[in-house]
Design goal:
The chain is α/β, with parallel strands linked by helices. The protein is built from 14 helices and 20 strands. It has helices at 4-7, 51-58, 100-107, 153-158, 165-174, 190-203, 220-235, 336-343, 368-372, 380-385, 392-397, 411-423, 439-451, 469-482, and strands spanning 10-20, 26-36, 41-45, 63-66, 97-98, 119-122, 208-212, 239-243, 255-260, 263-269, 296-307, 310-321, 325-329, 354-357, 360-361, 375-378, 457-461, 488-492, 505-510, 513-514. The strands form four sheets. It has a six-stranded mixed beta sheet with strand order 6-7-8-3-9-10, sandwiched between helices. The chain has a six-stranded mixed beta sheet with strand order 16-17-18-13-19-20, with helices on both faces. A hairpin with a 2-residue loop joins strand 14 and strand 15 (360-361). Helix 5 packs antiparallel against helix 6. The protein is globular, with a radius of gyration of 24 Å.
């Protein structure tokens, strides 16, 4: 048995456990992990490795049993510190999951029924009684919203929390969203929404804070600010568990748990961790070289967009020729997504501006669906609003019809979907339900959705969020080598290192204007 002196420092322990979903599906086998007071953990691993599922184990959402006495060995060649070693012998107790922290809190008079009551978790998207993307549609964020249906950021932050006004101002100021509190929550940018959700969980003062990809969607300054906040939280004694890319672990992290194919491949001190080397395909020297034919496919002249009198875009003039490949850059809230919504036919204010797409002025009779037929589109927001209960391959196939519901496809189209799934190395997931996939796997499926019809224009809004290095390189290779020179690409990112080599033009936005 563990000596009492050591048990008193343990927050959570799972020993040689098999973890099962409510329906009986096995998630992990031979899982062991111990978290102690004073440790800050990063959970790392590739797409589909089980990172988010592991945080659900912490929340108590899955059942567990002891793995039969065989093993839970580390991958060959990987190391583990003594304090968090993975045992190959059977545990000497009956419960594979233990919560000494909850036991100590109950002993001091706290009523705790489930681990989720002491854990604040910021997962991939907001799905709560307060706000759910399933109750909204994608274009709604660009339209007028009835006051009774609206939820401001201030209302979102205050609901269900006991934080004082002073705490609210302090936390929102630290996260750079204080001035956004009167705005509609649904109209926030991807990065602004991420900051808002971190602020809300901080206001709840959890015993343990779990942040799933806390830096995703943030611009360079935002990543620096949130990283500094994480450092300060640890310095103040907060207990943090972070899901992060292995090459983006902040200095405040003391321990790393690496997952590979739903097994622990490393668990130990951060200083002993060596980032694994992923094999990525070599670039083809015969890459597609973009060519332009002087035919404008996008023409914006003096375009401005306002919400409630507040300018979002101001006097934007921009022409994109067929075959050009543009990076659209700028900080959170600079107007990038609004700009793309005008191009993709989602924004009603396109009709009151000079916006010409494929040679036609918006409003001269061409429908939104006629525009979308020529565009392959991906965005983080589209992912948030996708709610159809489809298999992965049927989800990708909706890209042929530009709707989010299933449509009949041809044999040729089915072959295209299958080839793309195989290219991105997820062929084994074709018939899996989309919502049973990991966040990263879902992102790959929706990226395939944008590619399937091979249109004249690709609009890719932060397509590499939460993807691992190998998948990013596969996507870059596809864009550089499979897209023909006559096709056009618009690529939004906060990290220019993500850009495919053939994306050579830049549009920089700042505060709604061309910088």
């Amino acid at each position: 048995m563990t000596p009492p002196s050591l048990t008193s420092s343990i927050l959570f322990r799972i020993e040689n456990a098999t973890i099962l979903r409510p329906a009986g599906e096995t998630i992990f086998e031979g899982l062991s992990w111990t978290i102690r007071e004073g440790e800050t953990w990063a959970i790392v691993g590739g797409v589909g490795s089980g990172k988010s599922s592991l945080t659900e184990v912490l929340l108590g959402r899955h059942s567990s049993r002891l793995t039969p006495c065989a093993d839970s060995p580390l991958d060959e060649g990987r190391q583990s510190s003594n304090s968090n070693s993975l045992h190959t012998e059977c545990a000497d107790y009956d419960e594979p999951i233990q919560w000494p922290l909850i036991d100590r809190l109950r002993a001091t008079g706290h009523t705790i029924n489930w681990p989720a009551e002491i854990i604040g978790r910021v997962a991939f998207k907001e799905e709560s009684r307060l706000f759910s993307y399933s109750r909204h549609y994608y274009q709604q964020r660009f339209n007028f919203i009835e006051p009774d249906d609206d939820l401001t950021l201030d209302q979102y932050l205050r609901a269900g929390t006991t934080g004082t006004d002073e705490e609210l101002i302090r936390i929102t100021t630290r996260l750079g969203i204080e001035q956004l509190r009167p705005l509609s929550f649904i109209k926030l940018s991807n990065g602004q929404t991420r900051r808002a959700r971190i602020a809300k969980v901080l206001l709840s003062r959890p015993e343990i804070l779990v942040l799933d990809e806390p830096l995703v969607g943030l611009d360079t300054q935002g990543r620096r600010e949130v990283t500094a906040i994480l450092q300060q939280l640890v310095a103040e004694g907060s207990r943090l568990i972070l899901i992060l890319p292995a090459d983006a672990i902040p200095d405040c992290v003391t321990h790393v748990l690496e997952l590979t194919d739903r097994r622990v491949s490393y668990s130990g001190r951060r200083e002993d961790y060596v980032v694994g080397t992923l094999h990525v395909p070599s670039p083809n020297n015969t890459r597609s070289v973009p060519t332009t034919n002087e035919t404008p496919i996008i023409e914006l002249k003096n375009v401005s967009v306002l919400y409630s009198g507040k300018p979002i875009l101001r006097d934007i003039s921009w022409t994109v020729l067929a075959g050009e490949r543009w990076a659209i850059l700028g900080p959170n809230g600079s107007g990038k997504t609004t700009l793309l919504s005008l191009i993709c036919g989602d924004h009603p204010q396109a009709y009151s501006n000079h916006v010409r797409l494929f040679g036609r002025q918006r409003g001269d009779g061409e429908s939104m669906w006629e525009i979308k037929r020529r565009i392959g589109f991906f965005s983080p927001e589209l992912h948030l609003y996708f709610s159809e209960p489809l298999t992965a391959d049927r989800t990708a196939a909706t890209g042929f019809s530009d709707v989010l519901v299933p449509r009949r496809t041809t044999t040729e189209q089915d072959v295209t979907v299958r080839e793309l799934f195989d290219y991105f190395e997820i062929g084994h997931l074709r018939e899996h339900h989309f919502f049973r996939l990991s966040t990263g796997q879902q992102r790959i499926v929706l990226l395939i959705r944008a590619l399937v019809k091979n249109p004249p224009l690709f609009v890719l809004d932060e397509p590499f969020q939460v993807l691992d290095a190998r998948t990013k390189e596969l996507a870059r290779k596809w864009i550089d080598e499979r897209i023909s020179p006559e096709q056009t690409v618009l690529f939004i990112t906060h990290d220019e290192r993500e850009l495919p080599r053939t994306v050579t033009l830049r549009l920089q936005l700042d505060r709604g204007q061309v910088a």
